[in-house]
Amino acid sequence: MSSQKETPVLIASLLITVGLLGGGYWWLTRSGNFSLGPLTGTGTSTPAPTAPSPDSGAAPTPTAPSPGSGAAQFSDVSNVPSGLFNYGGSTTWAPIRGAIDPLIQQAQPDFQLRYTDPIGTPPGSGPGIQMLLNNQLSFAQSSRSVSPQERQQAEQRGYALREIPIALEGLAIAVNNDMPIEGITLDQLRNIYLGNLTNWNQVGGPNLPIVPISRPSAGGTVEFFVSTVLGGANLTGTVQTADTTTQALRLVDATPGAIYYASAPEVVGQCTVKPIAIGRQLDQLVKPYADPYVPPENCPNQRNQINSAALLSGDYPLTRRLFVIVKEDGQLDQQAGEAYADLLLTQQGQALLQETGFVAIR
To answer: Between 308 and 58, where is the model more confident?
Structure first.
């Protein structure tokens, strides 16, 4: 009999216990003191993310673009560090430093850039990379790839050099505006700078001595020209040297038989020189400028524009990539260089590079 009387008591006790447990769980979850989420290997729990319902009227939280994702605007790049960062290197980058970098600093005012020239040598890709290796720059701008010797120097210092491509660019060949030549082959160009062709009548032009001009050999443009066009051969003593492209273009303007090579954005839009076509064969000459050609008398109201389609397709035979060079050492300078590259790879940056005479790669 006693067991029959105890049964209702046990049931009542069980119901009371369940009620107390349920009420406690309800209070804890409503008060935010406890949550159940997916278990992790560390023994902690993480609340499941809650997305707003389509008709709740709440806007989803915007997601910042990841580094290198090709964000829309300079202001969208989120990995930009604060501080003053020295940079420098290739003279090919001069139009970018003049037209694009000020807009970057307007959008990212805490990201301060200071251009730094080398001491005792003309600026260029090589001196810029050496300054980076010597901790004089936060990152370098280059118109050529890092050389094996530079990579070895970096490894000896305990880090690697990373090159980040941001645009395509072409080399253009400039002659005097009065030179009737419309184009030459790569082989003819090579023999001019090796001293084997010395008169324009040897390439279908007038009886006039050829005066080849180059910048000093430390620059990335010269190194690219020597390796690509001259096959690694040294420039001969017949080649005149100009310290800067500005000086070289003035020499071409003042010398009827002069010829010079430089970055296409530095040559094609000039009023004082004439860009000419080049090709592997005489029947394959490709112009570095877009048709129709703008004669010098129409300049500066009108200027020749880069033949971007030919550079992008590879039809134009002298093209290369521009790189931001960074030290992969985990320091703030690495973040600055990577952020600078990310800014130039935004949609805004690529459009501005196109406007400046380079070819977008995104």
So the answer is: 308
Query: Would you state the CATH architecture of domain 74-168+320-360?
Result: 3-Layer(aba) Sandwich (3.40)
Tell me the sheet residues that pair with 83.
111
Domain boundaries along the sequence of the chain: 74-168+320-360, 170-319
| Two structure tokens written together for 305 | 């524009």
CA dihedral 218, 221, 227, 229 (to 10 degrees): -140
pLDDT per residue over 144-157, tens digit each?
A: 999 999 999 999 99
Please tell me what DSSP assigns to residue 290: P
- Rounded Cα–Cα distance for residues 353 and 343 (Å): 11
Q: 334 with 135: CB under 8 angstroms?
A: no
Rounded distance between C-alpha atoms, residue 82 and residue 243, angstroms: 35
pLDDT digits (tens, 9 = 90+) for 315-325: 999 999 999 99
**Residue whose entry in the numeric block shows the structure tokens 């997916």:** 38
* Alpha helix stretches (DSSP H) within the chain: 2-31, 94-99, 101-107, 125-133, 148-156, 186-193, 220-228, 245-254, 264-267, 308-313, 332-344, 347-356
Task: Name the token pair of 288.
Answer: 């570095």
170-319 maps to which CATH number? Answer: 3.40.190.10
What is the pTM for the complete model shown? 0.76
